[in-house]
Amino acid sequence: MNNLRKITVIFVLVCINTLNATQLKSVKNDFLNQDEMKYLEQNRVIKMCNNPNWAPIEFTPDGKFENMQGIAIDTVKYLEKTLDVKFQNVQTKSWSQSQQFLKEKKCDLLPCAVETSVRKEYANFTEPYLNLPLAIFTTKDKKVVSGLDEIMDKPWTRQKGSGLITKLRKDFPNMTVIETKGDREALMFVNSGKAYFTIATLPVASHVISKFMLNNLHIAGYTGIVYDLSMAIRDDDLTLLSIIDKTLQNMSKEKEASIFRKWVSASVKEPIVDYSLLWKVLITVFIIGIFMIYRQYLLKRVNKELEIEIEKALEENTKQLQTLQQQSKMASMGEMIGAIAHQWRQPLNEVSI
What we know:
This protein starts with a helix and ends with a helix. It is about 55% helix and about 20% strand. It has helices at about 1-30, 35-40, 70-85, 95-105, 165-170, 185-190, 200-210, 240-250, 255-265, 275-350; strands at about 45-50, 55, 60, 85-90, 110-115, 125, 130-140, 155-160, 175-180, 195-200, 215-235.
């Protein structure tokens, strides 16, 4: 009886696994062709090399590559689940070495990279799955700029091996760039005054600034460049390129948004904006407003005092006019009495004589 139960349980498990495999196969059939499905059956493990110091895009919090985290890594996990394969990390010492390993075919892909002419010599790229604007970060005492042209004569920092350095060197061959170990060091150099500015995406810069309290930094402007991030696949494996590209394009917008929100909302509490200038303007406007109100008050007060003085002057003039009129009347009466007395004086004199 017990053996019968065991056989029944095993049979049920086999049926479930077969059903799951059939369902997975039907899902793959939605966007993969037969050759691509056969490729996945023959290649159950895909080797990847990573950038260990690019939070929150991809990074290792404890120095162990098997514990890689970030937006790119969550995207890789989506690929693993969808394609039913394993993405195995090949440990490297740096981002530069990761690129070299891909070039030497020691790994199959880089989960997140910018397409450049140099990298295209040894890798193919999927369609971008992340589009991030690049901002210019300086200390708060530096002026706001409208573009890179205004500051490319000053020293700036960027992680060593970054494709942005190659891209900008074509337009600014005489630029002075200090290549750093990562974004943290690049931003710290600017914060301490060792460099004038750095260029970074908002999620990356916000993560570093909030984590290491680099509160003296702000966005001085934008480069006008959008970082289109793709997966880089070794150039001799076009089938893998097609599989990864199709799977990324098959990802729902909701899934993309949920991965992005998970990492960006966790590191970005508030936008990095310098409100000091705005406060200065508001305070200035407030002071001018108070001054205008006080000036208006003084004008009203002076006008009222003038009205009172004018009324007093008019009243005084009226009194003086009345006095003059009275005096004029008295003088006229005196002249009249004098004339009458003169007229009576002559007959009286005659009678007296």
